[in-house]
Design brief:
4 helices; about 60% helix; globular
């Protein structure tokens, strides 16, 4: 059932390749709306970018995670706008394709 819903992630055997594959999978889930942007960017920030040494390719998503994590109602930016920024950052990351990590 999870397979049919697209909720299973099958990582490559190489740990570094697995982290990059997970980044693309999570970004895809953010972009298609099946994963909350705050949850997804937090996963990328804490569980992926950290292990990869915070590569430049993930910086926009990490930035979104910081903003969403620290957001307060007193900010003059609605949370919905930060969510839209995270979705756009995920789409931009996906548009660059797997070749992005080749520069590591």
């Amino acid at each position: 059932m999870l397979e049919e819903l697209g909720l299973l992630f099958h990582p490559p055997a190489d740990p570094r390749a697995a982290k990059w594959a997970m980044a693309y999978w999570v970004a895809g889930q953010i972009a298609d709306g099946s994963l909350d942007p705050a949850v997804g960017t937090d996963l990328i920030w804490a569980d992926i970018a950290y292990d990869l040494g915070y590569p430049i390719e993930l910086q926009p998503l990490v930035h979104c995670a910081h903003n969403l994590h620290g957001w307060e109602e007193s900010w003059r930016v609605p949370i919905e706008e930060l969510n839209r920024e995270a979705i756009e950052a995920a789409k931009q990351f996906l548009s660059k394709g797997p070749a992005a990590e080749a520069g590591d």
